[in-house]
Specification:
The complex is a heterodimer of chains A (283) and B (487). Chain A is built from eight helices and 16 strands. In chain A, the strands form three sheets. In chain A, strands 6-1-2-5-4-3-7 form a seven-stranded antiparallel β-sheet. A seven-stranded mixed β-sheet of chain A has the order 11-10-9-8-12-13-16, sandwiched between helices. In chain A, α4 links the parallel β9 and β10. The radius of gyration of chain A is 18 Å and the shape is globular. The two termini of chain A are 21 Å apart. Chain B has a five-stranded parallel β-sheet with strand order 3-2-1-4-15. A five-stranded parallel β-sheet of chain B has the order 6-13-7-8-9. In chain B, α3 runs antiparallel to α4 and α14 packs across α15. Classes of the chains: A alpha/beta (283), B alpha/beta (487). At the A-B interface, β7, β14, α7 and α8 of A face β5 and α14 of B.
């Protein structure tokens, strides 16, 4: 069995790509917050990616990825009509969604894609969803239009001020929380420093804060413990206990260090891949 | 070839040793350690079997192989015949010949083992099983007509495509169920969560003990019998048990394995360089990380490595670390060598290869540097106390006596806990106190009618062959129901 790519959209050239994959059995079950594990070749590594969207009727799952290493660089060479050898999911616990009032969904970088799926779920449950998204500049903003279709408020922050607030998403979030004390939950997905900063901002407000951890994984089904993290002093597996946890209880420092575990190997792999590509041996 | 064996006189003939790669050579490669019998070795060893009237060996075998029968065929020089006998009982003979703890099973029951000084010891049943399976496969590949005839007969059974059975999990127990039912013409679909079928045979047991090519060969043979394998399907996520019945499956077998790795709850356990044996071995075996960067999955390396635990998994991890270039590999175990649950052969192989035993101690702390990279393990020294419920002496901490072991990599191999994914997604499935599936010991049926279970998800971590034994019992019951009118 293989999984065909029905659509490829380059969101940010050389950096961020969206793929729509034909995977009916995954699409039928996927809920906001779930992730998939895929491989790009028979020699490939299993990599986890949070689901950005899915369509059970069409049998499709949408993923968005940032090119950070060999596996994602290779994934970026796949074109429409080509197939992935392995695509496994849905994995992880789905986001807990219920009608609860106002939910602020914060997304940074590629994390906006995963946040989009969760925000959509909260909106469908009847919540007032405030999207807070950020990027370096307006050209790098993801899912802005899509979020606008179901979020009554889309608040934007850019580093250069080319659109929205000039500065960080956390500043926008703080302002929004000060204006309206009646926020029931904040969801944050993005780079570790961003999630950590969001949790810091929300803490004094006493708002429930949910973060989605992008730990290193191997099997993604609880077998190996590669993704273990400390939450509230206890060891949890991001793949089966998460990936979403209470942002105020996560040990982000440990997560950051564990994410760097294979840095030298990742660099070696990437270097070899780039050499191959230059020699025209790449796909 | 000679006629049927005449009355044999018991005379002392030593067990026929199987050649192995030399220890110092084999730790530099990932190839199989034991090299297999030659035809002459096999003949000599088969001839040691006295063909007992009431063979004890068979009772020692969890899948009740007609051991006397297959060795009898070998004595006659009929290799395809020997294979046919094996295959009637065991879907994975090449695997079992390699990884079964024969010393406590068939060979442990062999009458020649009762008086080894006179007989030379039990017949090497496992080695013969491996020889038959490997040689048959090689001859089949060359188009040997006698071998083709046997596989042809198997393929010509009556097909009953309307009788569908599903197996969740693609490890030894499910493969046994699939092989048994497919031989009866029942249509079996195996749902495997990982990208490769085989369960512990591919992610756990290293290439140097069980080449993955052999697992693939057995799986291909099942495909030829009509078994369908769906990889990347997680039971409890992509497919639920009740949905399978809705889709027309007549019975469901749950063989999802032992699951979550056990950690030890000591400080520093999440430091960089501390791994579960499951992660360490899965990276190397399923991910082929020993072939990095040709394969993409990376593995963590260090000059000094400690493996915590004394079972087969610990031995596999320690021997893997040596092959990945570690200078010093320690097995840290809280009892002594005599209490280690690992197979004798595995322990001996590990020691031959240079693994160092650090007995009577256990981790107090995984000490990290300022970047949380493991630099040493602080150990509590132990001594042996009174025997516990298992009959083994209890390790007792020696107050105030500690030790420090400098290592950059620690692999924790102290067992597993049940994986919750499928269990939580299957309402009505009764679990034991320890959280495993409760199944009838005779039929494997669970608290849900028509749902069977076997292997590590029922017993907790055990052996490949005990999982296969459970699979065989369940398969017999499933066949009886599916072909009869009980379901």
């Amino acid at each position: 069995m293989s999984y065909r790519i029905l659509q490829k959209k380059i969101l940010i050239p050389g950096q961020t790509t969206l793929l729509v994959i034909d995977a009916p059995h995954v699409a039928a079950k996927a809920k906001p917050g779930n992730f998939v594990i895929l491989r790009t070749s028979e020699k490939g590594e299993r990599i986890p990616l949070t689901i950005a969207d899915c369509d059970a009727k069409a049998g499709t799952v949408t993923i968005v990825f940032l090119v950070v290493g060999k596996s994602t660089a290779e994934l970026n060479t796949f074109e429409e009509g080509m197939s992935l050898p392995d695509f496994c999911g849905p994995l992880g616990k789905a986001t807990h969604i219920e009608k609860q009032g106002t939910v602020i969904c914060v997304g940074g970088g590629t994390g906006v894609a995963a946040m989009h799926h969760i925000a959509k779920g909260h909106a469908a449950a009847g919540n007032h969803v405030v999207a807070v998204i950020g990027a370096r500049n307006k050209d790098l903003l993801l899912f802005c239009t899509e979020l606008g279709t179901f979020c009554p408020e889309v608040l934007v922050a850019t580093d250069d001020g080319s659109v929205g607030h000039k500065g960080f998403v956390t500043e926008v979030l703080k302002k929004r929380l000060e204006e309206d004390k009646d926020v029931s939950e904040v969801v944050a997905i993005g780079p570790v420093p961003m999630m950590e900063a969001v949790a810091k901002v929300t803490k004094p407000f006493g708002v429930k804060t949910t973060v989605s951890l992008n730990s290193i994984m191997v099997d993604g089904i609880g077998m190996c413990g590669a993704c273990r993290c400390t939450v509230g002093g206890e060891t949890k597996f991001a793949c089966v206990d998460g990936p979403e946890f209470d942002g105020h209880a996560v040990d982000f420092g440990e997560l950051r260090l564990r994410l760097g575990q294979f840095k030298p190997e990742e660099q070696e792999s990437m270097k070899l891949f780039q050499q191959k590509c230059q020699c025209g041996e790449g796909k | 070839m000679s006629d049927a064996p005449e009355k044999k006189v018991m005379k002392k003939t030593p067990r026929t040793e199987m050649p192995t790669q030399a220890p110092m050579l084999r730790i530099q490669n990932y190839l199989e350690v034991a090299l297999g019998y030659t035809e002459a070795d096999a003949k000599a060893e088969a001839d040691r079997c006295i063909q007992c009237k009431k063979p004890m060996c068979r009772q020692g075998c969890p899948v009740e192989i007609d051991i006397k029968g297959f060795i009898g065929q070998l004595q006659k020089g009929d290799l395809p015949g020997a294979y046919k006998v094996l295959r009637d009982y065991n879907s994975l003979p090449a695997v079992c010949g390699r990884v079964c703890p024969q010393e406590t099973q068939c060979e442990g029951s062999c009458i020649l083992g009762k008086n080894p000084d006179k007989t030379g010891g039990p017949v090497c049943i496992g080695r013969l099983e491996r020889y038959v399976a490997d040689t048959f496969a090689a001859r089949l590949a060359q188009g040997d007509s006698a071998c083709l005839q046997i596989t042809g007969e198997a393929a010509c059974r009556m097909e009953r495509p309307e009788l569908k059975v599903a197996c969740i999990g693609g490890g030894p127990s499910s493969l046994t169920v699939a092989g048994y039912l497919a031989a009866l013409g029942i249509k079996v679909t195996v749902f495997e969560a990982l990208h490769e079928v085989g369960g512990v045979l591919v992610y756990g047991i290293p290439e140097f003990r069980l080449p993955k090519e052999i697992v693939r060969r057995e799986v291909e043979a099942m495909k030829a019998l009509g078994v369908e394998f769906k990889t990347n399907w997680v039971g409890g996520k992509a497919i639920l048990v009740n949905e399978l019945f809705d889709q027309g499956y007549k019975a469901v077998f749950l063989g999802v394995g032992a699951g979550l790795p056990q950690f030890m709850n000591v400080p520093g356990e999440n430091n960089i360089g501390v791994f579960s044996a499951n992660e360490y071995l899965t990276r190397v075996n399923l991910g082929r990380a020993y072939d990095f960067p040709n394969h993409d999955t990376p593995i963590f390396k260090a000059d000094n490595v400690a493996v915590i635990g004394g079972g087969n998994v610990a031995m596999d991890a320690a021997r893997t670390a040596l092959r990945l270039g570690a200078k010093n590999v320690y097995i840290v175990y809280r009892r002594t060598k005599d209490e280690m649950p690992a197979r004798h052969e595995e322990l001996e192989h590990a020691i031959e290869e240079g693994v160092q035993l650090k007995c009577l101690c256990g981790p107090l702390e995984f000490v990290g540097d300022e970047n949380k990279r493991l630099k040493s393990i602080r150990l509590q020294k132990m001594c042996l106390g009174e025997p516990d419920a298992s009959g083994r002496c209890r390790p007792v901490a020696m107050e105030g006596q500690t030790d420090e072991l400098e290592v950059g990599l620690a692999v924790i191999a102290v067992g597993t806990r049940p994986n919750p994914i499928l269990l939580e997604a299957t309402p009505g499935l009764k679990l034991t106190k320890r959280g495993y599936i409760e199944a009838d010991p005779e039929t494997g049926e669970t608290s849900i009618h028509g749902v069977f279970a076997g292997g590590d998800i029922v017993t907790g971590a055990a052996t490949v062959i005990s999982a296969m034994g459970a699979g065989r019992k369940a398969a017999k019951e499933i066949a009886r129901r599916v072909l009869g009118t009980d379901l």
